[in-house]
Amino acid sequence: MKATTSTGQGRVRVTKDPVQRREELLDIAWELGRTHGFEALRVEQIVQAAGVAKGTFYHYFAAKDDVMEALIRRFSDGLFVELSRASEAASTADNARIRLEQIMEAATTYKLSQPDLSYATLLYSESNLPLRQRLFRAWRERSQEVLLPVIEAGATDGSFTVMDATVATDIVLLLWFEAADQLWNRAVAANSADKFAHILLTGGYAIREAQARILGMPSDSFTIPDDPSFIDRIKELYLTLDRNPS
Fold first, then answer.
1. What is the pLDDT of residues 8-32, one digit of tens each?
2. Contacts of 225 (CB under 8 A, 6+ apart)
3. CA-to-CA distance for 213 and 161, rounded, in angstroms?
4. How far apart are CA 147 and CA 161, in angstroms?
5. Which residues pair with 14 in a beta bridge?
6. I need a surface site. Which of 10, 83, 157, 209 has the fewest CB within 10 A?
7. Strands (E) located in the chain
8. What angle do CA 29, 46, 112 make, to 5 degrees?
9. Residue 108: which pLDDT band, with cuts at 50, 70 and 90?
């Protein structure tokens, strides 16, 4: 809700709901970052584009780094909502294998639904390494909450062949985070958008194949999108790397 107050000089100041104002600042920071680069983004640019004073910005964020973290968390919060929703919806599935497939499909669908993939360049920026490590720790915990019950159920119903569900979950999460981190580092060293996309797509398939083997499933149990439009979006992501060196 908006409120208006007089400034005493004939002007009317519009006061926005705090949540709305914070989201507006994040939206502006996101557009500026994806257009001009997150590394080069400055607080002055955000407040100028938003038409607010610096004091307003610092009421919501202590520094630019807080904005970067909030942007990444906004993406990840949406992802975990979808994963939890998919897990709950699949709880009545015939077996845990189907539940896991539906969770993986939900993750892919959510990522594909994003207007662009610039979150990756923001997350994997070298200057954001401490932030990435901190977020990864939190994301592992949230991922384990979704994944462990499914793997435990699969060990019981025969969907998965694992000696210890907790250890198997830990190893799968290593693939989701550490292996994916290494994959990104190899991809950003590519000298063309085509090579960049090839490394990410084939590496992504290899990670999912390894996940299937860890769980005692057929190696082709999981697939990755091969839609041309998705591949084009990955190639477009390559163009942001010059602005956001890793």
1. 444 445 566 788 899 999 999 988 8
2. 108, 112
3. 9
4. 15
5. 4
6. 10
7. 3-6, 12-15
8. 10
9. confident
Residues present in the chain in total: 246
pLDDT at res. 14: 53
Sign, CA torsion 69/73/76/78: negative
Q: How far is CA 161 from the centre of its chain?
A: 30
For residue 92, what are its two tokens? 């009545």
What are the backbone dihedrals phi and psi of residue 204, each rounded to the nearest 5 degrees, phi first? -60, -40
| CA–CA distances in Å: residue 1 to residues 14, 25, 123 | 10, 16, 32
Looking at this protein, which amino acid is placed at residue 113? S
pLDDT of residue 123 exceeding 80, the answer is: no
Calpha distance 76→124 (Å, rounded)? 14
Q: What's the token pair of residue 58?
A: 């610092």
Per DSSP, the three-state class of 12 is: strand
> Among all chains, which residue has been given the structure tokens 């594909």?
112
Q: Report the C-alpha gap between 93 and 89 in whole angstroms.
A: 8
The pTM of this model reads 0.74
The DSSP symbol for 158 reads: T
Q: Cα(26)–Cα(74) distance, rounded to whole angstroms? A: 9
